[in-house]
Design brief:
165 residues; alpha/beta; Rossmann fold; 6 helices; globular
Amino acid sequence: MLLIIAASHQKNLVLAKKVSAAAGELGLPAKVLDLTELTIPVYSSRNHEGGPGEDFEVLHQLMDEAKGLWICAAEYNGGVPPVLGSAIAWLSTQCDDFREMFTGLPVALSTHSGGGGQKVLTTMRTQFAHLGSIVLGRELASSDWKEANPDSINAMLSTLQQLMG
């Protein structure tokens, strides 16, 4: 299953749903996860002892089941949305299988961003490569003035499908 993570509930969630529809047309099983719907607190060392929140197991289970990952994230002040950074931080501190979860996992990166999104794409590429994931060379950037190219979505999905076996 391809797990499509939306790290904001607006235009990146719309993008995630477009990707999911395209995956369905290719016969690739996919699930959209809107991180903003989950009750998972922002990670910090101060709230570590309080735990990752009531919905963390949903995130953990879906990550365990994922054979590939597609991230749709807006650029927040030149970086990743806090909800995405926190989700990764909680996974890294709470899961014994954290390294196995990401090592070798094919990952596609995309953004719908008012600022063009290149900084968030670069930041995510660095982070997921650090985690041991196989990050696709091609990425998808869209904005209010540049729609997501359906041909790019299909090409990226085809690459993911091959990598997922």
